[in-house]
Amino acid sequence: MNRLRFSSFLLIVSFSFFPVNASASSPSPTRAAGDKIKVVATVFPLAEFAREIIGDRGEIVLLLPPGIDVHTWQPRISDIRKLEAADLLVSIGLGLEPWLDSLIKGMAVKKTSRLEAALGLDLIATNGDEHTSAAGRSHGHEGFDPHVWLDFGQDEAIVDALACALSRIAPDGAGLFSRNADVLKERLRALDASFRADLEKFRGKEFFVAGHAAFAYLARRYGIKQVAVYGLSPDAAPTPREMVEIISRAKASGVKTVFYEPAAGDKMARLIAAEIGADVRILFPGHNLNPEQTARGVTFFRLMEENLENLKHGFAGN
Amino acid sequence: MHAFFQYAFLQRALGAGLCIALACAVLGVFLLLRKDAMIGHGLSHVAFAGIALGLLLGQWPTAVALVVSVAAALGIMKLKEAAGIYGDTAIAILSSLGLALGVILASVSGRFNAALLGYLFGDILAIEPAEVVLSVVLAAAVLAVTLIFYHRFMYMTFDRDAALAAGVPVRRLDALITVLTALTIVLGMKIVGILLVAALLVIPAAAGLQTASRFKAAVIGAGIVAALSVILGLGAAYVLDWPASGTIVLVAFLIFGILFIVRRK
Predict the structure, then answer these.
(1) Most-buried pick from A209, A235, B168, B262 (CB within 10 A)?
(2) Residue A25: which pLDDT band, with cuts at 50, 70 and 90?
């Protein structure tokens, strides 16, 4: 159902930001058939998906440098050049990339098509656990959790949208893109199945993140509960009483592992773990890699498998 | 209040907070009398460049920040003396330079992120046991130096020329205070955060100077105000469910305000 709604959205919304030269019959008149497609992706999962789909027909630029936090990054002038040179810009939206609008304003040439991956997905509102869809809204994105790629089912919809957007830019590659997208979706389904199988017996249990609340989509999909020290943004520090409440709640639910995420560091996690006698493990939100992981060529799938291992360790302990 | 006895993180916040507050209060009195109130603010910007440089070099960021900040503090002193530039001008120049270099270095090293922020903005609620020890050592060092050089510090603070004429090594003692200040700022901001260090360097000392007519009373008064601010501030932050650092600064300001009004009557 999601996918149907999504594709109708794609036609209406995603290309309306930069209308791809509306008068021309071919989507991008400057492109000759067989030219490499240039895609700029704001965050790591989008770059990974785009790379898999596009195969050897194009190149992907990941805008966010390794190890940088997406919320606080400051783009450079060269990043505007990257956008101007691109055929397609893929972002998440929902305020995840607060710097993107000013980057786009700075572009002198606006021929780039744009895809906002979160559009039309089944979103989680940031106040409470209520499931809300953005379908009823235009593009006033705040108020929803932007970490949508941590729901592997929704990732399939993102993959479809990407393949569709790429096919519009390079219609001659449509067959390849759709085949590659099918392979990628198959891998996502396998990943989803392994998460489901391994986490099924922990349904309803809580996991504590001494970082920002990035894992709501993962929690929703597998029926586990995220308790986060920080809010959605990693820089909102807790008050003393919030700390005490989190520690006593962690103690009460018998947690044996406190998770941290790379953006916030492990200091707070170690503090809580020391208070309740637990150990500490990492969970990757995955919007970026650190420089060392980039050098090793860690994939999105590898990252998520590591998350699964750590989650299993955490749940098995209590 | 039972939470303070139950949770180690609150005890660590209290212990490290008190030690750093005392070190800041004592140094603050000298700094205010030297009209160097903005030095905490200035050196924290320089420390930012130092941390970024350390991350770029991949070596001990806090140590690099210490070296850079001490050098900058001595540079501010030299700028004041040699060029006849006012203290606040010298601080403004070096802190702007520090901020600019920090932004560039962080961008070049590609690590404008949590690592940098973690080194820059400590959190009084997330203090590690080793940092408590470090705070105790820092406070002890500041207090010991102050006690040892107490009379000479006092002499040169009130009458620099007479102290020079009397053969007091004014330059070296100036440098000693400056180095201690840089040390307190860099370690303090890593442990309890920059907001708190900059405030604790100025407000308790200002309060102490409000009330006291004698130098010794001002130093002791500043220490008491600093300690009360940390204790009452942490308590209030817990009761009111407010952020800890901000509440401590607010309490310090309230104490200063009350003393100011009482004094004027």
Answers:
(1) A209
(2) very low
Would you state the structure tokens that stand for residue A224, as one six-digit string? 């586990």
CB contact (8 A) between residue A237 and residue B114: no
Question: In this structure, what are the phi and psi dihedrals at residue A296, rounded to the nearest 5 degrees?
Answer: -75, -15
**CATH topology classification for B3-259:** ABC transporter involved in vitamin B12 uptake, BtuC (1.10.3470)
ipTM comes to: 0.75
Residue A130 to residue B230: CA distance in whole angstroms = 40
Interchain CB contacts (distance < 8 Å): A and B: 77
Contact B114 A234 (CB under 8 A): yes
Both tokens of A163, joined, read: 């393949």
- Which residues have C-beta within 8 Å of that of residue A96, sequence separation ≥ 6? A42, A43, A70, A71, A118, A146, A147, A287
Structure-block tokens of residue A250: 């962690």
The structure's pTM equals 0.77
| Calpha distance A9→B97 (Å, rounded) | 49
Angle at B55 between CA B54 and CA B60, to 5 degrees: 50
User: What domains does chain A contain, in order, with CATH numbers?
Assistant: 2-192 (3.40.50.1980), 203-317 (3.40.50.1980)
Sign of the torsion formed by the C-alpha atoms of B224, B23, B49 and A267:
negative
CB A163 within 8 A of CB A171: no
Give B257's contacts (C-beta < 8 A, 6+ positions apart). none
User: What distance separates the 2 farthest-apart alpha carbons in chain A?
Assistant: 66
Give the residue from A72, A74, A79, A241 with the most B CB atoms within 10 Å of its CB, the best one to mutate: A241
How far is it, in rounded angstroms, from Cα B189 to Cα B187? 6
